[in-house]
Amino acid sequence: MRQQPSIREKLCEDLEDLPEEQLSEVVQYVERLREETLRQRRAGQGLDARGLELIWRCTECGYVQAKREALPEACPSCGAPKQSFVLVEED
User: Fold this and answer.
1) Does 2 fall in a domain?
2) Residue span of the structural domain in which 31 resides
């Protein structure tokens, strides 16, 4: 029976194909999430990141895709290249 890849392995696999600009956005987002998690822990609150998804939006047409799925080579809605996706940040 083949073992499922770990979350870390899957994330690394998904990120290795991203252009530098998109990778920088993800790193900045994760750093903010880390800071928020540490702040919540210090305040005695927990954070369940198991359901965490990165949300990407096509800058050409507005198509939105959850990162649990691999980013497509082109936008399924308008055909724009993978580089047209930007990370959606929510407060």
Assistant:
1) no
2) 7-88
pLDDT tens per residue, range 22-33: 888 888 888 888
Does residue 1 fall inside a structural domain? no
* CATH at residue 44: 2.20.28.10
> What 3-state DSSP class applies to 79?
coil
Residue 3 dihedral angles phi and psi, to the nearest 5°: -80, 140
The conformation of residue 88, written as its DSSP 8-state character, comes to E
Q: How many CB atoms lie within 10 A of CB 59?
A: 13
Residue (of 59, 53, 58) closest to 10 by Cα position: 53
Measured between alpha carbons, how far is residue 38 from residues 8, 28, 42 in Å?
Answer: 20, 15, 6
